[in-house]
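Lecture 7 notes. Example A: sequence first, then its structure tokens.
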Amino acid sequence: MLHDPLLYVAIGIAVGGAAGALFGRSLGPNAQDVRDADRIAKQKRDEADAVRREVDSHFEQTAQIMGEVTKAYRRLYEHMAKSTQRLAPRRTEDLVKSLGDQRLLPRDISNRELRNDSSKRGRGR
């Protein structure tokens, strides 16, 4: 059964067909068009990857800057809140009472920092 000539013919046709298809594709009239299309597709993929990397970098840098802005704004807000409590305590108390639970700084933080600031001023005299 291993020496069946029909088997050899079938294998030869399969191998020959595959080789012919590969050979014909590489030497056919459309071979240059196929290579050009592959080259253009690779170039477009590379360009898309470059744009994707640039966009990723942009958003990474934007997030970093926004984080810095947020920290700076928080420092500014805390500075303004402490200064307002120290420089205009009566108006600050009225404002805190009017805000109720809508305060941006919890009472314990603002009172603690106000006490720390007043004790520092007492020592400096």
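Example B, a different protein, same format:
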Amino acid sequence: MDSTSVLPPELLHAIFDHLGFSDVIRVSHVSQHWRVLARQHPTYWRRVVLHEAEDCPLDYIAVDRAIAQLSCSSASPIEVDIVRWFPTSGTAAQPDDVLPVLVENFHRVGSLTLHVMGDECDASAAYTQLLRQVPPSTGSSLSQNQLRRLALRNVELPEDTTLFTGLLTFRYVAEADLDFRMTADRLLAMFHVLEELDLKGVELETSTIPDGIESWICHLRYLRVFARRTSHFLTLASIARIPHVCVANPTASDAASIVSHFSEGQVEVELAEWDYVKRVQPLTIVVLPTGPTRVLEFMDYVWLPDVHNLASLSTNVSRLSFPFSHWDEITGALPHLVCLKRLVLRLDTVLNTNFICELRAPNLQYLVLLRSDDFRDSVHGPLLERFLDAFNTSCKSRIHLTLDHIVLEEWSDRLFDVLENGAEVRDKCVQVRNSFVLKAMNKK
């Protein structure tokens, strides 16, 4: 008699958490009860991971493990995450052993990630063929097909398939040298109940807008598209109701049409620092209090003052955040910040008062100076004093100042005359914090 049969399954699963995969296989042979528990264990059976790096080809142990997980598991739905690298040397293992097992068990897959990397063009065709081989009876019935999340990289979608009709999340990535395109008609035909659509490096062709696209868009909660051929698509009224929209590489005119959706209500605006790895600089606009978000990812440099609708939007901005190096660009693009209450400046360069454009925020209450990760210089008190005098002369009231991760040197007594409520200091060295406390006590 198996004495562990009286234990709750959760306790045995907790024990399995401390075992390696090969040990779980051995445990499954102890008894029928343990076999059932092992096959239902979420850590080893509900997530199949097969990752390959450029300099580290898959070994056959990893392939055999993935096959065992796909064929032996009784869990459903399962998550499959495959990343393959096919260098020109051709040393990578062939995917044929895994693909037939994946096709056979596709009806139990709830989330599928297929990323094909490298320079071998023939590799992606094998995985495209995989999607074509799934039996129609599996893909056409929503009761049998459990696939709800699909992420593809350099893998083309098959034509005329009903495999994705129940899909909720679709992420599609293509390299810059591959000409992958998606039409609005195809989206409407393939994805019936989609909630998240993320297209990166894939052009969405919307020269013709199909009937029914407005009601289809109403299901979306997240949309990320490449803006080059989506200008007509982005002007649809239903786009403005999507909670989170990210538009990659918009021109100034495309950005202006996107911003035109924000005709009323207060908004938060944040310009991120330029990401040299991704070669992108996001401008995020959040509508309050409903929360719709628009992220414009400028992969080619766009001078923000050229986005004319930002000027009209500036009257509704309640919170603004941007790198200090973009001071003139932001203040030029947002000239009338009459509702601005909170300003966050991320110091990515030395603080100075050489402004071409002055901030016009008469009702500003909070100023946060936040040090960027790659900026190490300290801030001198007299320079901070001159900055506070000059940066927003239209503001007649005093402000709350927060210095976050900034080292302050040469403290200036007159800073307390500039600030009505003193300054809040976070994460500073003890000497600086003590100097604030001492000066505050002297002022009292």
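Note on Example B: The radius of gyration is 28 Å. Confidence is low (pLDDT under 50) at residues 89-93, 138-143, 425-444.
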